[in-house]
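Re: your question from the hallway

Yes, I did run it. Sequences:
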Amino acid sequence: MKKVKIALLGVGNVGSGVWKILSTNQREIRKRSGYDIEVSKILVRDISKKRPLDIPEGILTTDINEIVNDPTIEIVVELMGGNEPAMEYMLSAMRNKKHVVTANKLLLATQGGELMQVAEEEGIMLYYEASVGGGIPVIHGINESLTANRIESIVGILNGTTNYILTKMSLDGMSFEDALKEAQEKGYAEADPTSDVEGFDAVYKLAILSSLAFGTKIDVDSIYREGISNLKSEDIEFAKEFGYTIKLIGIATEKDDVLQMRVHPAMIPNKHPLANVNDSYNAIFIRGNAIGDLMFIGRGAGELPTGSAVVGDIISILRNNVDLSSTIETKEINPCKTTSSMDETICEYYIRLWVNDRPGCLGEITTEFGKHNVSIASVRQKGERGSYVPLVFITHATPEGDLHKALEEIKKLEGISKIDNIIRLENF
Amino acid sequence: MKKVKIALLGVGNVGSGVWKILSTNQREIRKRSGYDIEVSKILVRDISKKRPLDIPEGILTTDINEIVNDPTIEIVVELMGGNEPAMEYMLSAMRNKKHVVTANKLLLATQGGELMQVAEEEGIMLYYEASVGGGIPVIHGINESLTANRIESIVGILNGTTNYILTKMSLDGMSFEDALKEAQEKGYAEADPTSDVEGFDAVYKLAILSSLAFGTKIDVDSIYREGISNLKSEDIEFAKEFGYTIKLIGIATEKDDVLQMRVHPAMIPNKHPLANVNDSYNAIFIRGNAIGDLMFIGRGAGELPTGSAVVGDIISILRNNVDLSSTIETKEINPCKTTSSMDETICEYYIRLWVNDRPGCLGEITTEFGKHNVSIASVRQKGERGSYVPLVFITHATPEGDLHKALEEIKKLEGISKIDNIIRLENF
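Structure:
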């Protein structure tokens, strides 16, 4: 059997998964790849740190040069995450003619173009299935299987941490703060949860998917972003009453060569399969002009699911697959315009206000909506007359710009405490 | 731009879809494949037949030799279906060094080994994504993305016709006969619906998936098979009462190197995502030892979804992908034992009997169950005392052999009209 040497940069969560899979599934991997894979070096920050894995002595190193300058190492697997030194190390590995597998969504989303270009210049393969959706083979799917399609839209639950929090809020009635705390205790959320909770992580993943699906360069700053930290238990409960479930979604749609991408909480009809994707599961819903609707559901994180995607990429390289990198950036199919404006986005909306429930108040609010052509589908009020109570509207489909103009006027009415939340309803 | 000539064998439903996609999505396909694809010949039975497609004169032919003997044709796309002459034509195309794309599940399931072997001998590529799940990229998924996994089980809604019928029975309260008639009128079911309704189609698809997932040769006759024609509206209604939905599923599980495959109606808990896959949608649920649970949902039939898979395969060939055929049959990972016996299958069961509701009858039945170690979880009875009424039992998990022994005894009791239906409950 042929042998191949690979190196891991980092052996944290995903790295441990890769190590375990290479050993547990050795028989399958040998047969499918045709190779005996040897992890010959692992880059770590601290060699003496206790690790639960049975790693032989001499494999660990703190010196990247022992990897990039070792001509016997053919594949470098970057699992450090973050910006630097991961970028420098990947470029250095590629310049030394090593194939690279990475799970680094931040770098793919923000500096993917440069990585792809160097891969092409050096004639090596750069694979990154693990960067989106953990084990879910969505990148392979878009790049290899949906190639006959013009993709019209992608809607994804792309972040497992926020999906776990929203599931706890929805099914167990927890507050955002308590659900976040539980997610942190279980290791689903980091000590600083900003990247997950405020939607940055989902933005990076949406950028990667969009660049592949729409064949165009993506500037992550053109993606509209809202997190879930503003969601209150009452929003979850009102959504339930109306037959919806709130999910943090990433949406990319292309129409008339204009691409719009956005990440925000949305109310999904309970009958849509995305509404029933719970806990830390991810899901990606793709609509193509030939395939129709296609959906992938799977574990979006975790050492073994993400490790499954990484080891799958290693096997793909060994089987000398087509170079996935060549389909991104360097071969733009559709250099379409991107809009980051939400004013013309047409949605139905959920709006929750606090009002002093005096006579005539509802009439004044609905009059302002009417003046701006915002048509109301449903109203719900809770609490006692004469006090400040939550008042919820669901609108018919309306351009977001009109809605905001109406709300500007409504804010000025007497007895309106504040507009507490606006959530888009997505019916796809 | 490079040019490539291809030929279609047949231009019915799927062939029309392929023709339309090649023209509608020409821009995307050129960019992604690097080729200008020309359909230079189409094999038909009757040239003069009116077709709704705008096919140029001179492309149609009734002579296979004009295709297999034309050295300028590089890819042959077999969309005739059935046994012969499809097999002969594919072999002839491969022997003439043409790559082959096919949607022929019957041939893949029953003579896949021979097709793969010839493909390997001739050094050509044989792709068949469209043979299972229409547009759903499940074959690519298993072959390319899940390679790091030992697959433990596959559960699929593999037949769109029966899923359409069951959806109509479940959501609209239709009888099996009426739902089948409607499916035939809408073109979802054929005039002779046996292959769909009795589970043969699902058996072929399960055989293809199993051979890839478990890396072993599959004899289709070793797959246990039950269709849906015996399902009555009362079974659907009782299932609902218990919180289940009835689906025709294909299941393949491997344990201790023994592979069991079966196709039959099953009661799926409503909270499982498979229970909510309706109409003609297909779904495939895969459990791997690294990836955990992964599910694909999409259109399992239709000219454009199936055409999407066929054209995707053509593009994969043009991009010179890895030869998928090399992973099936010829490279057995796991030549495991197959069992076709259901006696040791452990399930919970739904059993519907007609009984003369005389005093003591229920006690006699439950005593017989008890004697054979079949433990009852739930009983429901409908109708009036003193007449023949349906009586439904749900058992706890029990080996199927024991259940049948108990039922043999129960049949002999006074007042038992017949055992009308037995449906397995699947909790995965």
